[in-house]
């Protein structure tokens, strides 16, 4: 029997406030600015601490410095869990509104929704805000997501699915605003960059379709899905890759990044470039997918 769809009260004001906090901190939250990273980790932990969940830091060292993941746990994760994650660091001297404050705001709002709506789940949920997704640590064991995924593997924790939020705030209604790694894809996907994508490995097509399908049930935004062999670089450019490395099923929710957003890794990646109406629809869709996965 198909579950009835509740009202999913995503609050744009909270999304905006979270993005504003992350993008306003100076100096920017990249790996050399530990005070800024710690301040943002503290903000995330404070917001999650308002909810009825367990909140903790997962601390680890890279190049002699200490970094932190922030983890919020709802329900019993000892038998099986769903992981929802987003990184809070930036690549350089940039505000990082889309990359990746948008996703952190989405992560916090999803946790608030779970706390408010209290869905009846047969699995626990961990929300994880990661540090060190960006260079020079990308694709290394020092990625916060790899630290988290490895810790789950070491304890033989069952992960039903991992959902990675990566750049969910930038959209464009201009024609031909969407670009592609292979030109032939323009005949398969929209050429206007006003959709969200569910991305994953070809071998996990069922999970991709399930997540995308549930998102479409509640979202007014167009939800596209993209699956490809793992050897295609574009599908593994975020924290979900760490869970693949540990043998866990994972997908990425993404607005196609630099194939659409001209502000990617630039000082112009500012809050005024984001579309909070569409962000709201993305979060609403991810919530529904997360509780029905």
Describe the structure.
The protein is 32% helix and 20% strand. The protein is built from 7 helices and 8 strands; from the N terminus they run ααβββαβαββαβαβα. The mean pLDDT is 96. The chain has helices at 12-24, 34-48, 97-117, 144-154, 205-218, 240-245, 276-290; strands at residues 54-62, 65-74, 81-87, 124-130, 159-166, 195-201, 222-228, 250-254. It is globular and about 45 Å long. Helix 1 (12-24) packs across helix 3 (97-117), helix 3 (97-117) crosses helix 7 (276-290) and helix 5 (205-218) crosses helix 7 (276-290). It has 293 residues and is of the alpha/beta class. The longest helix has 21 residues, at 97-117. It has an 8-stranded mixed β-sheet, with helices on both faces. The protein has one domain (12-290): Aminopeptidase. This is M28 family peptidase.
Shape annotation: globular
- CATH topology term: Aminopeptidase
Q: Could you tell me the strand content as a percent range?
A: 15-25%
Largest sheet: 8 strands, mixed
Helix content: 25-40%
How are the strands ordered across the major sheet? 1-2-4-3-5-8-6-7
Residue stretches low in confidence (pLDDT < 50, at least 5 long) are: none
Rg: 17 Å
**How far apart are the first and last residues' alpha carbons, in Å?**
15 Å
- Going by CATH, the architecture would be 3-Layer(aba) Sandwich
Q: Assign the structural class, choosing from mainly alpha, mainly beta, alpha/beta, alpha+beta, or little secondary structure.
A: alpha/beta
- State the total count of DSSP E strands: 8
The number of distinct helices, counting runs of at least 4 residues, comes to 7
What is the ordering of alpha helices and beta strands? HHEEEHEHEEHEHEH
